[in-house]
Amino acid sequence: MEFFLILFVVLSVLFFVLFVFFYFLHKRNLKILKGISHIISDSEENIPIIKMIDVLKEMKANLETRYSEATKSRENMRIILQNVSDGILIVDSEGKVTINNSAVCEFLGIENCVLEGKKLVEIVENYDMLNFIDKNLKEFTNGSTEISIVYPQRRYLKCDAIPVILKENEHVLIVVIKDITSERELDNFRREFISNVSHELKTPLTSIHGYAETLLDDDFKDVETVKHFLEIIENESARMSRLINDLLDLQKLEEGKTKFEFQNIDLSKIVDYVSRIVKPMADSLGVELKISCNKEIYVYGDFDRLVQAVLNLTDNAIKYTAQKESGVKSVEVSCEIINENECQIRVKDTGIGIPSDALSRLFERFYRVDKARSRKVGGTGLGLSIVKMIVEAHNGQIKVSSELGKGSEFTIILPILSKVSPKNGDSIPA
Ligand code: ADP
Prior knowledge:
Blueprint: H1 2-41, H2 49-82, E1 87-92, E2 97-100, H3 102-108, H4 120-123, H5 127-139, E3 143-149, E4 155-167, E5 170-179, H6 181-217, H7 223-255, E6 262-266, H8 267-285, E7 288-292, E8 298-302, H9 303-322, E9 330-337, E10 342-349, H10 371-376, H11 383-393, E11 397-403, E12 407-415
Parallel strand pairs: 7-9
Antiparallel strand pairs: 1-2, 1-5, 3-4, 4-5, 6-8, 9-10, 10-12, 11-12
Bound molecules: adenosine-5'-diphosphate (ADP).
Adenosine-5'-diphosphate binds at residues 316-317, 320, 349, 351-352, 354, 362, 367-370, 374, 379-384, 408.
């Protein structure tokens, strides 16, 4: 009996303790739920639990919508960024990339373009670029600079740094990188061109001025010397006028202002015309001129312009062959069909030849292998660039091969008009 009494008391105490525990637990949960409902409703009023669950569900749905919208707009931003031609790089205050587009990787030669989270020093090899970003990041200021890089290719890049505060303690630097290579190259080209033209004009002008001055001081007794000086003046002024004509020609060709009168032309007529012009010069310089262009090959082109191109090559060939001190001196101009779509005019000489490292630069304006020699033969350094432009206007190509001391071969390749020779004067629609 006593045992049952003790058991009863123990169980009662245990029950009481459990009751108190669950009561406080329930009270605590209620307090938490009330707190949440207070936050949600933003009012002091209590919200029934059921309603609160609905509110929470609505909140979840809202959050999900907002999250998917945010993801979508981030994705849209990424698409836009990837399609911007300028490089965009966003760096956080620790110098880590937060956003970048593919143009950045292209400009800086970065192969694996997943840069987010990487430190700048790990990805940017160019010291000037690193320095620029680092400085603007530390000072948190706007900045602008121009950087030239050589890898993966020579480029000029204009970099602008814009500091932005996104939220408190979230400072980023936006770096916009613009490729200004073509502008810079054009500037350099213009500068070089002006300096070349001035130099080319200055040389004959100085010579003309010098000889004219000497003549003015002369008593004209030595007729031979006077004649020699006048010849020099005549030669130099002719060279100046050639140079100016070449320059005007080049400018017109470049601006597309040259009028091409396209018609059916037999290549042999061009070669024949050129050979009649250069024959006297070849004879006087002791250079044998061979022509092998008997077959009729028709191209669609401008007769005068094609004559100008072939004349230029043949003139060079004769002059630079005559410069050779000994050995066979001959120039051969030939034309032939090379395949069912193309034909070629070849100007081959046994002259002084061209060093292999000069071949790739030969068609540049004012490029000469040997300046003194070019001047000696009355060259302007513009002939081959004009030839190239004329050939390209005919959808053709020009090739050169040469061996120093042995001779050179220039080949103009043109599309064939038709395998059957059309009647003279037939016009082909452009
Ligand atoms: P240039 O008026 O000086 O001849 P071009 O543009 O016609 O200018 O030629 C450029 C350079 O190419 C020349 O200065 C010369 O050095 C070289 N060259 C051209 N044709 C020949 C050739 N047939 N043989 C050797 N060198 C040549």
